[in-house]
Design a protein that fits this description.
Structural class: alpha+beta
Helix content: 10-25%
Order of helices and strands: HHEEEEEEEEEEEEEEE
Distance between the termini: 138 Å
Number of helices: 2
Strand content: 25-35%
Largest sheet: 6 strands, mixed
Number of domains: 3
Oligomer: single chain
């Protein structure tokens, strides 16, 4: 019996080792498979594939926001607490019945010709992958900015003082013309037409203050080198600072061209 056992033992040990090695190999393969599956799932969670509708909304929003890099994006909680220029972008949800395939390339977004990203706009979105498509997407853009308004009625020809103005935040899409962001841009200017109280002051509504009236007696200055001559003249035109007008020299009767340099003063052009 002992001899028989001694003969069998050398054979049994390698078989047992082989089975153990096989189980270890199987466990290793299973572990690697599980790890690979986990990595694959992790990658899929980290990089979700956006559907066509979400791709379009995100692309349009980012495109418009890119035109206002210094503005604060309005959202619930910061709209009332933030000062300065602010922008609110509304891209309506697309009809869920509309079938739009997700694009495998970055979407191309552009405005229609001669359009600015302000107010109600239409944006073209293009997908240029193997199955290209195009869509026109409506959007609404509201940009809130400090704008200069009249604090009281202003009559035509009146010169604006700082007390005539107030600054209020407004959606600039609602203001027609070239609105002003600072009162310094309006103070000292002359009103072209009568303005009621509470309206936005625009560049088109103002002109430089008239320093010389037509028919007014003016000081006519002529300088060449170190020689300076002052004579009296009569303005044949009204003019503001820097404007060229015709002036008749009271001594010679000659009509010369001169530039308005101040109230009642002009300088002859050579």
């Amino acid at each position: 019996m002992n001899n028989y056992l001694q003969l069998q033992n050398p054979c049994q040990k390698p078989a047992m080792a082989t089975r153990i090695h096989g189980w270890r190999h199987t466990l290793l393969v299973v572990a690697l498979t599980v790890l690979g599956l986990a990595t694959s799932l992790s990658d899929s969670v980290a990089s979700p594939v956006l559907d066509g509708h979400t791709q379009i909304s995100t692309a349009v929003h980012d495109f418009i926001a890119g035109h206002y890099p210094d503005a604060v994006q309005l959202s619930e909680g910061n709209a009332a607490a933030t000062s300065g220029r602010r922008v609110e972008i509304d891209v309506p949800r697309l009809d869920p019945r509309l079938s739009i395939q997700s694009c495998q390339m970055p979407l191309q977004v552009r405005l229609n010709q001669n359009q600015t990203p302000l107010g109600k706009i239409s944006v073209r979105v293009d997908c240029q992958d193997a199955a290209p498509w195009s869509r026109y997407i409506p959007a609404s853009v509201r940009v809130y900015q400090q704008v200069v308004f009249s604090a009281r009625p202003l009559t035509r020809g009146s010169v604006i003082a700082v007390t005539d103005l107030q600054v209020s935040e407004v959606d600039i899409a609602s203001v027609r013309g070239s609105w002003l962001a600072d009162t310094d841009m309006a103070v000292g200017k002359e009103v072209r037409r009568t303005l009621p109280s509470g309206v936005a002051i625009t560049a088109e509504a103002l002109t430089e203050q008239e320093l010389i009236a037509r028919g007014q007696t003016v000081v006519l200055t002529a300088q060449k080198g170190t020689v300076l001559i002052r004579q009296q003249g009569v303005a044949l035109q009204a003019g503001e600072s820097g404007k060229q007008i015709s002036v008749r020299n009271s001594n010679s009767g000659r009509v010369v061209q001169a530039v308005v340099t101040g109230p009642g003063e002009v300088e002859v052009l050579f």
